[in-house]
Specification:
The structure is a single chain. This protein has six helices and seven strands. It has one domain: Rossmann fold (3-Layer(aba) Sandwich), CATH 3.40.50.2300. The radius of gyration is 17 Å and the shape is globular. With 153 residues, the protein is α/β, with parallel strands linked by helices. The longest helix has 14 residues, at 79-92.
């Protein structure tokens, strides 16, 4: 009987939550061309659906980082649900860093940053090179994982 652990790698997955279509597409293309797997959502409601879907399906690949426009979280009606879902998603899976993008760091935005323990806050306008550099400091493009393998005779 032979038993071993083989190192494999997976591409890191980023969830981009951005309400502006053009910015969302720019971010999606930037990270996709850089080798990341990318999923996008355009609203707090879509974010909630994705977060709940991830929590209900832990066998599926999980996000490694959330890149989120703070306006998605700044919806008074959905704010608590979105923040709670994000914290549950982070709790249920591995550590899940969030990078927030904001135009102005107002007091309300600062409270959200603290509540979510954001890994970074990027001010708009930003260039994609700086944003990509920030994300690469937080998560690698390729994440190592271990897969067990055994052969019986």
């Amino acid at each position: 009987m032979i038993s071993s652990a083989m190192a494999t790698s997976e591409i890191s997955q980023i969830l981009i939550a951005e309400c502006d279509h053009e910015i969302r597409e720019l971010l999606k293309n930037t990270f996709f061309r850089s080798g990341y797997e990318v999923c996008t959502c355009a609203s707090g409601t879509e974010f909630l659906h994705l977060a709940r879907f991830q929590m209900d399906n832990p066998q599926l690949p999980q996000f490694d980082l959330v890149l989120c426009d703070i306006r998605i979280l700044d919806n008074d009606i959905l704010h608590n649900d979105i923040v709670e879902s994000f914290l549950q998603l982070r709790e249920k899976s591995k550590p899940l860093p969030i990078v927030l993008i904001d135009l102005f760091m107002e007091a309300k935005a600062q409270a959200i940053v603290g509540q979510l323990r954001a890994a970074a806050v990027i001010n708009k306008p930003t260039n994609t090179i700086d944003l990509l550099s920030t994300v690469r400091r937080i998560i690698p493009l390729v994440k190592p994982s271990v897969r067990s393998c055994s052969v019986s005779a």
